[in-house]
TrEMBL record:
Residues 415-449 form a coiled coil. This is histidine kinase. GO terms for molecular function: ATP binding; phosphorelay response regulator activity; phosphorelay sensor kinase activity; protein kinase activator activity. CDD domains: HisKA (cd00082). Its EC number is 2.7.13.3. The keyword Lipid biosynthesis does not apply. One of its GO terms (biological process) is osmosensory signaling via phosphorelay pathway. SMART domains: HATPase_c, HisKA. It comes from the Bacteria. The lineage of its organism: Bacteria, Pseudomonadati, Bacteroidota, Cytophagia, Cytophagales. It is an enzyme of class 2 (transferase). Residues 456-669 form the Histidine kinase domain. The keyword Nucleotide-binding applies. Pfam families: 7TMR-DISM_7TM, HATPase_c, HisKA.
């Protein structure tokens, strides 16, 4: 890591050189204090055959598909000082061909570069190439082609640095990948040996082969860059091993899950998958490389139903509460998630953190191993328990035989009593069935509302948590104070969103646990509390809030009336008109005591509500406009609170004009003839 002062120094140098127009927008500036490893991301100049030169932007990899054209890529590097820099350059992707030039002098060539895939021959070396960069301007030129996209261009940025640092960069990747996939292979070998000693339950064997084949596929695939393999084996051999391991892992993984959840399997579908994958495995052995690799996209689409089928088996086990149901479902869903991520990588251009997919694979196999371990641990315990219980049961059988005879006589007596009881129970059942029918209707309505609430509330609560986690991950990087301050501000806003949601959930609980308690509510104090609650929003929005009432006190539950007014005023401020002066936006609250009820209205001259939306706006989680930043609970809470208080609510509105919410609540009068504006 370079020091903070060196970063300032480098930044000033870059600014100075840019001001003097000594470097173009695709120029990288190097000094003796530059970082040891530099990824050549950013702007490159693409020189395409028959086309004018253009600027392209190379993102940090890895990615699997390039939108750039075939041709020669140029990157300018400006070396400060009077001394040349002896560095090394490394091109991460394998199964590629390229010609590397420094200052128009050929430095290295790998494979045969050609736009024709039949003529093009990729190289396989994972190694750094030594280069010398002279003081002043230097140009790196790369003519580049990839096996899967022979006519594509540069799809991942090269890396430059000192020779030792580049070697360590390659070896570090080797060590991590070897550790991950070596662990998966050892896991597979362990389960195969366990099957040999156990001689039962073929799912153990299938899992071991599944783990080994998937690890074989991963360590031979083009994106892993394990230098020992690619520097000592022919590229066609590794491609065959890659696809052989891929199709074999599909076959054994399918057999593993199919056997694990065999009582839910579909025989016809299983036969089709086994036959299809077996043919694909055979094709990797007997057909030319360019034949079976053409089917890659097709296989990615076909594999999706197989993964969905596995999740179906796991789900059936889960809903039937099998002994491995939960962890089996988790393993199947995680397999689908990792496959989906790899599928997106194959068809789109974006990058993810290094080794994240590899660690995901390791997690999948650990979950699957846990599934098997849990099943057989329970089976062993059951065998031991059965042996102990068998001895005990044999002794009990003799005792039970004697008791059976006695019980037979008792049963005859009890049968007569049961017949009498049966007639009584039948009468009770008829009465209960009528009550159950009425209660069932109420429960179904409550369950539907509860299901909707739990689903939406869980998602609304999880979203700000995910945002906070992402912001924390960014904050852990090397950020400036200003950037960190901005992130903390965003985290505070996100936490505020979650806090508002929790407050509404607490409000729902308070409403549904209302026990008919009533208070003497002083309206002047209520007015002060409302103004205090919205002081900041009223100042920032410029909305005028009026609070009128014709009595001093009302007899009502203070907490619920405050919740109602709070959510109505909050909605009025949020949906005020944006195209009028702040001073014209207003919210009016009026409270009147009429005989034995209190009439309360909240009026605003805001956006209004469409006529077609009026009957739905009080439903749970309903949002009548895309402008809503809440979670659709405000008016729902108001209606629920009014209903709990035994009142009625109505909404009058005209779009782009006004909205008025009126509700009547039973309340005995206390005193009258009091008015305050």
């Amino acid at each position: 890591m370079i020091s903070f002062f060196r970063l300032i120094h480098i930044s000033l140098v870059v600014l100075l050189i840019t001001t003097k127009s000594l470097a173009s927008d695709n120029t990288l500036i190097l000094t003796a204090d530059s970082p040891d490893i530099i990824h050549l991301t950013g702007v490159w100049t693409l020189e395409s055959p028959g086309n004018a030169d253009k600027k392209v932007f190379i993102k940090d990899g890895p990615v699997n598909k390039s939108k750039n054209s075939y041709g020669t890529y140029h990157k300018n590097i400006f070396v400060e000082g009077d001394s040349a820099l002896d560095l090394s350059i490394y091109l991460p992707l394998v199964r590629t061909s390229f010609i590397l030039k420094i200052n128009n002098v050929r430095v290295a060539e790998q494979g045969k570069v050609s736009q024709n895939r039949k003529m093009y021959n990729p190289g396989m070396k994972v190694r750094p190439y030594d280069i010398r960069l002279n003081p002043g301007n230097n140009t790196i030129s790369i003519t580049y082609a990839n096996f899967a996209h022979a006519k594509s261009g540069l799809i991942t940025p090269p890396v430059i640095g000192t020779h030792d640092d580049i070697l360590w960069h390659i070896r570090k990747s080797d060590i991590i990948l070897t550790a991950i996939y070596g662990s998966i292979i050892l896991l597979g070998v362990f389960f195969i040996l366990f099957f040999i000693s156990w001689k039962k339950d073929h799912e153990i064997l299938y899992f071991g082969l599944y783990a080994i084949m998937w690890a074989l596929r991963c360590i031979t695939t083009a994106s892993k860059h394990i230098s020992f393999l690619y520097n000592h084996f022919e590229w066609e051999t590794l491609i065959r091993l890659d696809y052989f391991g891929f199709y074999s892992s599909i076959l054994f993984g399918f057999l593993f899950f199919n056997k694990l959840f065999k009582k839910y399997s579909k025989p016809n579908f299983s036969k089709i998958v086994i036959a299809g994958t077996s043919l694909m495995i055979l094709s990797t052995i007997i057909t030319p490389v360019r034949v079976f690799t053409e089917a890659t996209v097709f296989v990615h689409f076909i594999l999706s139903p197989v993964i969905i089928y596995v999740i179906y088996l796991s789900y059936q086990s889960y809903i039937n509460n099998d002994d491995i149901s939960k962890i089996g479902l988790a393993a199947a869903i995680s397999a689908m998630a990792i496959f989906g991520l790899e599928w997106l990588l194959f068809f789109q251009t974006f990058s993810i953190p290094d080794f994240s997919i590899d660690l995901g694979y390791l997690l999948i196999f650990l979950l699957n191993a846990s599934t098997l371990s849990r099943r057989f641990a329970k089976r062993f315990n059951q065998l031991e328990t059965l042996q102990r219980e068998t001895t005990i049961q044999n002794k009990k059988i003799e005792d039970q035989h004697n008791k059976i005879q006695e019980s037979h006589n008792t049963i005859l007596i009890q049968r007569n009593e049961l017949e009498k009881k049966h007639e009584e129970i039948s009468a009770i059942n008829r009465s209960l069935e009528e009550k159950v029918f009425e209660r069932t209707k109420d429960l179904e309505r409550a369950n539907n509302e509860l299901d909707t609430f739990l689903y939406r509330a869980s998602h609304d609560l999880r979203r700000p948590l995910t945002s906070i986690q992402g912001l924390c991950s960014i904050a852990l990087g090397n950020l400036s104070s200003e950037e960190l301050h901005q992130l903390l501000k965003m985290m505070r806003e996100t936490a505020g969103t979650m806090d508002n949601m929790l407050k509404k959930l607490i409000s729902i609980s308070e409403i549904y646990h209302y026990n008919d308690q009533k208070d003497i509510v002083n309206l002047n104090n209520l007015r002060v509390e409302i103004f205090s609650e919205f002081k900041a929003k009223l100042c920032s929005s410029g909305v005028n809030l009026d609070f009128d009432y014709d009595t001093e006190d009302i007899h009502i539950n203070k907490r619920l009336i405050f919740l109602i007014l709070f959510h109505l005023v909050d909605n009025s401020i949020q949906y005020r008109k944006k195209d009028i002066n702040n001073s014209e936006s207003k919210v009016e609250i009026k409270i009147k005591q009429e005989c034995k009820q209190v009439v309360i209205s909240v009026y605003d001259n805001g956006m209004g509500i469409e006529k077609s939306q009026l009957e739905n706006v009080c439903k749970m989680f309903y949002k009548a406009t895309d402008r809503s930043t809440g979670n659709g609970l405000g008016l729902y809470l108001c209606k629920a609170a009014v209903n709990k208080l035994g009142g009625e609510i109505s909404i009058l509105s005209r779009e782009h004009s006004y909205t008025e919410v009126i509700f009547n609540i039973p309340a005995e009068p206390i005193n009258t003839n009091y008015h305050l504006n």
